[in-house]
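Two records follow; treat each independently.
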Amino acid sequence: MSEKKVDFDELEKIFDYYHSGYQCAQVLLLYALEAQGIENPDLIRAIGGLNSGISEYRSVCGCLSGGECLLSYFAGKGAEEEEMHAEYKEMAKELYDWFTEFNEDTGGSVICKDLLENDFSQRARVCPILINYTFQKCLEILEKRGLI
């Protein structure tokens, strides 16, 4: 993963969540819910299926899938009378494209095991920083469209 500047106040909060047993996808949604003063354990529990590359299979990174869920939380269809935001698909593509570019030093992979270079002991070093940058990118995408 490329070395980039990190906001340490935010990173400390991510580490707190992470060390409390939450993982990538869950932390992204916890962060968003907390900012709104909302607790939703059912949502956080459900999102847990995306952690560690989809339930420990080391497939699609939980940061990317959790980030896509975060975008959908604000822009997706959630009730029969609602409509998906007109730009949702572009938002999802923007996050995906950014994620692959951000991880260019691992070949632009979106796969958990590739991002950890098949060394899962690196999770505590890699994941919190990737969570931070993914969250910031999601905020940027949502702010650009006036959704937050």
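The next record belongs to a different protein.
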Amino acid sequence: MPRALAVLLLGAALLAAPLVWGRTPMTETTSRIHAQFVLKDAAGRSLLDAGGPLTADTVAAYRVPPERLAEARRRLEALGLRVEAAGGGVLSASGERKLFAKLFGAVPEPPAGGEALRLEVPAALDDIVAAVLLPPPPELFTEPTP
């Protein structure tokens, strides 16, 4: 079999594979939800209380100490969430849609290109989490320039 024909057949198989498996890449709604948890410091303040733009001068006032960050991480993981990143006063965590529904009630899809959706903070996290935000999905372009 000529090499070009083999490459062509392999390419066709790779393109058809998602259809055979009953799903399409990039359009399937995922069962995993990613959220941002804005944390409170020991005094109950968060980045959301800044009341204006954060600058190098003002951001230090809202820094969450490492032990508080570690406590928030432990509590989110105890609820079944997977903490993926932590920094400043925000934790990024994910979990299955069913788990989010159990913790936060019905979880709608954020609108594409819109603002982040804010979920109700459960009572079990109210003392350490100021807000739970679902960022909008990324915009993917098929052309090199938008």
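Discussion point: The CA atoms of residues 32 and 74 lie 20 Å apart. How would you locate this feature using only the token line?
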